[in-house]
Amino acid sequence: MSETILAVEGLVGGYGKMTILNGTSFTVPAGSITTLIGPNGAGKSTVFKAIFGLLKLREGRVIFAGREVTGLGQRDLLAAGMCYVPQGRNIFPELSVRHNIELGAVSAGRGIGDLTRRIEAALDRFPVLRKKARQQASTLSGGEQKQLEIVRGLLLDPKLVLIDEPSIGLSPLLVQQTFAMLRELRARGVTVLMIEQNARSALQISDYGIVLELGRTRMVATAARVLADPRVGQLFLGGA
Fold first, then answer.
1. Distance, CA of 130 to CA of 135 (rounded, Å)
2. Under DSSP, is residue 5 helix (H, G, I), strand (E, B) or coil?
C-alpha cells in the first residue's frame, strides 16, 4: 500500500443529541481512488462533513498529508489541498457558468490569471459547459450543474478530492465521462475519496473500498476484495 494521505481516527459525532459516527477509523492511500459504501444512515456523508470541518467532533482526529487538521476551517483546508464536492446543488445560480468556475478558484484565495489555461482545458473536457459558458448557471440541467460543481472543485488543483454522489442526475454517458475524469485525476497523482449510489460501478474503477455500517468501519480492503465479499455483495451491492 502506498503512503497514506488521509487518516481518520476514532471519529465520534453527529447532529444535536443524535450520534452518527461511532468511532469511525480508516486510512486512504495517496494517489488512489477509494469508495466509501454502506446503507442509508451509515454515516457516509457525515464522515465527509467531519473531515472537511463542517461537523464538530466529540472525539477523534483527522490527519491530512501528515498534519492534524481536525476542526480547521474550509478555507484552510482548501489552501492545504483538500477539495469537497458535496451532494446536491452548490452553485451560484444567477451568475454565468464561467463566473461560477472562476469564483470557485477565488474562494480558495487564488487569482484568476494563472487559471485561464486550466479553465479552458476544463471546458474542453466538458463541451456542454463551454457551449453554455455565458448562460446563467440556473439554466443548466441537473446533470450539467453537477459537472459545473466538479469542474469548479478540480480547478483548485487539489491533492485530495472528497466527492459525494458524483453520478446523481447524470445520464449514463456523462457518468462514464465523470468516472473517466476521476481515473484521469488518479493518473495525475490526485487522491479521490468518493461516496457513490452505484457502488458496484464505483468499486470497479477504485483501488480500495471502505464499508461503513452504523457509523463504524466494518471493512477496509482492496476494491476487488470488497466486490468479491459475499456479505457485502448481498447487503450493499444488489446481490452476491
1. 10
2. strand
